[in-house]
Amino acid sequence: MLPRMTRSTRYDGAALGSALAGALGLAALSFAPGAVLTQIDLVERLLVLGPMVGIPLGLSLSTHGNVGSRDAGWLRVLARAQPVLALSALVSVLFPAGARAAWVSVPWALYCVAVGLLGAYRAWARFQERGPVLKNPRFALDAALLYLPIGGLWNLLARAGARPLGFDDAIVRLTAVHFHFAGWVAPLFAARVAIALEESAASERTQRIARVVLWTTVLGPGLVGGGITVSQVTGSRVSELVTAVVLASALLTLGALSVRAGRTAMRSRLARGLLWVSSATLGLTMALAVSYAWARVSGATWPGIPFMVRWHGVANALGYAGLGLAAWAVEDRVK
Predict the structure, then answer these.
(1) Predicted model pTM
(2) Containing domain of residue 160, as a range?
(3) 182, exposed or middle or buried, with CB in 10 Å at 0-12, 13-18, 19+?
(4) Residues 270, 325 within the same domain
(5) Sign of the CA dihedral with 23 first, then 24, 30, and 35 last
(6) Are residues 35 and 100 in the same domain?
(7) Are residues 259 and 308 located together in one domain of the fold?
(8) CB neighbours of 256 closer than 8 A, spacing ≥ 6?
(9) Are residues 19 and 158 in the same domain?
(10) Exposed, middle or buried: residue 39 (CB in 10 Å: 0-12, 13-18, 19+)?
(11) What is the pLDDT of residues 146-166, one digit of tens each?
(12) Span 82-125, pLDDT tens digits
């Protein structure tokens, strides 16, 4: 059993307060006269949502992966530094892609690297612990931290206007979004669901399924990125389709396990409801992800990138990630 969360492990509310301030700030920028955010496209708005709201909420969730007082202290520092450094990600999208936008986004990229270093430290410390490594769901919390530098790097490339391996501008920017959302929250959610099932004494079969899903989810974003890279280099889209199907299957199973965990392990009705809606969103987003991968293989024109951004991207960011992060944050506050 995990210990009851304390004032210290909640980082004095710094992460949650930052997420709320970020959400309110973005809302003000969106609806105020002469709104700043209306001047940037939907992809950039989704990207800004990650640093301002999704990342601090995820940092709050990752407290369940602490391996000692040292990493808890580092995470507390990162939670308090995040609001200031996230502003560089916001300001960078106000400039056209190029050197100026890239330099402005550097502080956020460095912050992402710092989060990744903490994830590496925690993973290494966990390897030193006794017990079966593959059965410890808290490794997925470390993996989430390790994925964030990839998002920061691709955001830096996008703001610089770089086109690595000849990728289109849209793919570079969407890769940055992907690792600020799917690569960030999916391992967090998989870990929290596995921990909840473990604490609620779910059957060994259910816990075994949860572990398989957890590790597939942890490896999934990297597999999808690798599949897309192989497709770009070889011209064959088959690897892209296969990895998309694997990740979609894992996330849909995770959604079903989340519903069960909410029913058996969550105390808050509000948290349970938010988690169920978040999980239900996966039905739409994963169907679209596989449809897009199939279209790339078959040469079909639907669904195209603009459609995917509007429906898959928004539903993933606001529905799956946003509501899911809110659900676990609410649950942690009532424990």
Answers:
(1) 0.91
(2) 13-180
(3) buried
(4) yes
(5) negative
(6) yes
(7) yes
(8) 279
(9) yes
(10) exposed
(11) 999 999 999 999 999 999 988
(12) 999 999 999 999 999 999 999 999 999 999 999 999 999 998 88
